[in-house]
Amino acid sequence: MKKFFCLLITCVLVLAPITANAQLGDPCRDAATDVRRDVSETLWFALGCLFGVFGVGAAYLFAPSPHAMDLVGKSSDYVAAYTDCYKEEGRSIQTRKAFSGCLIWTIVALLGGGGIVAATTGCLVN
Fold this sequence. Notes:
It is a single chain. The protein is built from five helices and no strands. The protein has helices spanning 2-24, 27-38, 41-51, 53-61, 76-121. Helix 3 (41-51) packs across helix 4 (53-61) and helix 4 (53-61) packs antiparallel against helix 5. The relative contact order is 0.14.
């Protein structure tokens, strides 16, 4: 019976840290999932359209912060990794969407501007 308890205690001491880490999961994967839920891609696309390069700059400069409720009960190492990954992934999404908006607006403006110039100079053939 004594050997059984020694074996049981040894198993608990060895397996407890493994199961604790398995319950926490990968902080970067969790952060990427959460930031995709939280960041408004439409907002950053619109800011890229409306403000051009300044919208892209704002998207890069203003990294989103994770919600405190997502980090309750987590270890300090997990919180640090999660926060870094959340900000990095959020900045990436914001910048990509703002750049897309800026690019689309530039193309539309160039095509529209080209049509206006052609119409006013008589370059259009009817």
